[in-house]
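Justification of computing resources. Each target in the renewal requires a structure prediction run like the one illustrated here; the chain below, 682 residues long, is used simply to show the kind of job we budget for.
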Amino acid sequence: MSPVEPLDVRLFDETVAAVALFTGPEHRLVYQNRACARLLGARPLGLPAREAFPEADADAFMAVLDEVVATGRPCRLPEARDPDPDAPEQARFFVYSCTPVTTAEGPGAMVVALDTTAEIVALERYQAVASAVSQMVWVLRPDGSAEEIVPGWQELTGEAWHGWMDSRFTAYVHPRDRDRLEKDRRLLLADEPPRVIETAFRVRTADGSYRHVATRSVPITRGGRATEWIAATDDVEDRWKAALREHLLAHLAEVSGGTLDEVFEAVGHVIVPELADACLIMLLTGEEWPPPENTAVTARSAASATRRDLSPPPPLPEGEVVIGAAVRAVLDSRTSRTIHVTVGGRVPPGLVPAVTEHWLADADATSVTIYPLAADGIVLGYALTSAHGDSPAPGPTDTELLRKVFHDVEPPLRKTLDLQRARRTALRLQRAHLTDPPSVPGASLAANYQPASSANEIGGDWYDAVVHSDDTLVLDIGDVAGHDLTAATAMAQLRSMLRGLAWSNGPTCKPSTILSMLEDAAEGLDIASFATAVHARLRRTPNGAWGFTWSNAGHPPPLLLPARENPRFLTGDDQDPPLCALPGMPRTSHTHQLAPGDTVLLYTDGLIERPAASLDEGQQSLLTAVALHRDSPLPELLRRLQDLSDKRDDTALLAFRVDRGSSGDETAGQYAAQPSSTPPPG
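Resulting structure tokens:
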């Protein structure tokens, strides 16, 4: 073996690292480059190390020199921290390494020192900033290892961080969020990763509940490739809850004033999939809770929602179900209850309808939670939420959050309940005045009333039919502006006044005169500011025909369905304004002869008006439907015509048909059921 060449110290004269050489048993200092003199101060050469470095904390340094020379193995000294003589308040940081070498003076040791003050200070400042703005800061590497720069994992989960983004980490992530995290991980490992990747997911905490966190990852690029990533993770649970509440309130605002079903439909779509995999809301069919003893209580399905990858539960075939003891206990106590379901098992009998019970088993439900629903102290029903597959059952934090969600629903529920009470009152008032039409010799008469589908659309539509002592028939139909209890009350007053005026003035009084009298009374008594009406009188002639005389106060025109012709609207010669629009303006009466088999239809605007269509289109649809069903009995004809309404407004219909004579029977069915070729009036 050739002898080892001594180290040429001139190699280190201009290096940026501080280099010092020591030889002999006393470790005499034989070389110090300029960087070492600047870093540690110039030391006299030839002195033993203890004399060249007399600092009080040099003992560890001397021990390392002894060890390296004795063992022949290099050693790295622990990080050192020394005060800066020029700035005593600013500490300085160094990293030392000691390596055995052969010098011209014999075996020795080379010490290399680096000043890492700038790097350490920068890291400390970064850690301080990160700690101030983030709960956790990580360094992520391509091999899946992860180092916590700013710790927080143990505080969040109760478990110490184990150093890897592997299955042990994924086990703490909510099952519904794992696929998204894996997708983001693949983006990080791509050849050209995004400059920033942001994602939100749920992490299981020490108490078993889940909290929402948000992570922002930024790559560190070296040589054109991302070699590691800095990821800052914040706890955003409070922000998420606030956003969820805003989302809920926005949905509730869209159905403000709607039915209970519409309100709970909106709630269900907020709960799923954020808070549950499926949600079924059942409303009690009775209004009293607690019910009388030994009384069966039934409920109906009001709304349901399911996670996208779950099939929806089947509808209830019975329409209503009798609630069991478990549900009754929840409603009595006003507290929620969670029932855990074993794998392949079923919920307790009677908890849910049979078809729902089978669906829960088929959909691999793991838990079912019952929540009572109440507003203003009134028990309305209950909500059933379920977790499926690998979704965890709700913990106390989750059930409390859902309880708060249902609590936030109470204000719109109270509004809906108030509207429903007013609606029921108005409908009772309205239906009390919408009596069955009388029997009319020589003719048929039928009426139909359909309230609006929306809870806040009460309406002021009415109809009336009265037979005078001389068999003259009086028909009325009208509509008061507004969709509330005030409109319904005004409707009842106007209808009663019109009936009284028509009766007291007798069958010979012109319809236009009666409407003028009604307008004077309504204006003077301040009953209604705006209303439309048709007042008509029908008298039978000896030849079997009927004289039809009417006056129209701004109402949709009567529709005539002749026995031998196409249907058309009876517009008359003049268009009179609605009641109370131009008080004192003269009104007009119109007359038409109705032949045997002819039908005349009076109706309100809810039948022909739609937001997305013109009035002409609505009238044309009515002409088509009347022609199509012209041979139907009047009650059936009216039921079919009600299908034209979009149910946004209430609708009243009143139809009169002259009985067919022998000639009418012979011609029945000979005429085409098609709309009039002339366009309807605007």
